[in-house]
Amino acid sequence: MQHAQGEVSVRTLTFLVIVCLAVCVEAEAGFEKRPVVSAEKTFLEGDYTRAIAEADRCIGLSYSAAEKEELSYMKALALLKQKKYRDAWSIFEAMRVSFPRGRRFFVAELGIGDTYYCEGDYKSAIDAYQKVIEHDPLNRNLGVVYYKLGTCYNASGDRARARSCFAQVTELAPLSFEARMIPVVEDVPAEASCGAAKGYFSVQVGAFKTKKNAENLIAELSAKSYEGCYIETPEVSGETLYKVRIGKSATHKEAEGLAAKLRRDGYTTKICP
């Protein structure tokens, strides 16, 4: 699949995994969770290969549909962490079919969209997220879905729909993490949005109204060993933006190599002169 380019929130698949695909398995009345605990423990330790193997082992031993659903969910999360998006899609789809009344049905449908998003297939991600809304229009977590939709529309260049979706986020969940992380949606040509040419190319991964959000993204990127992160603060329509960029490459080809690596790590990119 081709990777589309555009500006999105700083949290990309932190926004996919941490916010919406929470790893903590809550206590449920009526079934025993011990088969889930060992898979959850290895996942939280960051041993995703072992977590997948443990989930498979426990699914074979488990007699409860609720346990199997939780174990499948844990396995799908581990596959997402390993960037095995097609495999994760298969698990989420199987959960959707096998557990239509399960407590993880909503996040399974959401996970299907997440796998498309991670691959850069924004059109398929949008279709998947819209189906989540159609299937459960009263779900209390719809703010998360609209945030993801807005991010996809913004990345694919549909600014009007991006704004509409982000407005839904602030209306449905004004105090949520997603509401705080809504990115700036700029109506400027892509070729002009990075400012005047400076004799080098950098890769932009986010633009924000608040400096703190930009600093959070830089901290996240630095933790992943990306070097040369910095903030530029141009003005757009009289408003200061904090744009997070990486590197100062001598050639466009060199910058594209960095952009490709960032996209593989779940970020959406723009190469700037």
Word description of this protein:
Residues 1-15, 21-32 and 188-198 have low confidence and may be disordered. The protein starts with 13 loop residues before the first helix and ends with a strand. Among the domains are: 14-130, Tetratricopeptide repeat domain (Serine Threonine Protein Phosphatase 5, Tetratricopeptide repeat, Alpha Horseshoe); 201-272, Alpha-Beta Plaits, CATH 3.30.70. With 273 residues, the chain is of the alpha+beta class. A hairpin with a 2-residue loop joins strand 3 (235-236) and strand 4 (239-240). It has twelve helices and six strands.
Descriptors for this entry?
273 residues, alpha+beta, Serine Threonine Protein Phosphatase 5, Tetratricopeptide repeat, Alpha-Beta Plaits, four-stranded antiparallel sheet, two-stranded antiparallel ribbon, 10% strand, globular
Summarize the structure.
With 273 residues, the protein is of the alpha+beta class. The protein has helices at 14-20, 34-44, 48-61, 65-81, 85-98, 105-119, 122-135, 142-155, 159-172, 177-180, 211-223, 252-264, and strands at 201-208, 229-232, 235-236, 239-240, 242-249, 270-272. Residues 1-15, 21-32 and 188-198 have low confidence and may be disordered.
